[in-house]
Design goal:
65 residues; elongated
């Protein structure tokens, strides 16, 4: 019998945005920032890091640029 393993790395079969947004908020809180609403983080999910500008970094208080 052959075993097969399927990875959905691009979100075609499932939507990983909730887990990714929660991970981002966990990281923000660990660094002393306020968590952000999950919907506001969705714009950061998907684009390559090279496409994000320096102003997208969190500032004190948890605000994104």
């Amino acid at each position: 019998m052959r075993a097969h393993l399927l990875f959905d790395l691009d979100g075609t079969l499932s939507d990983p945005s909730v887990g990714i947004a929660r991970s981002i908020n966990h990281g923000l809180q660990a660094l002393g920032y306020e968590p952000r609403p999950e919907a506001s983080l969705h714009r950061y999910i998907g684009p390559p890091l090279d496409d994000l500008s320096c102003t997208d970094r969190p500032r004190r208080g948890g605000a994104f640029g």
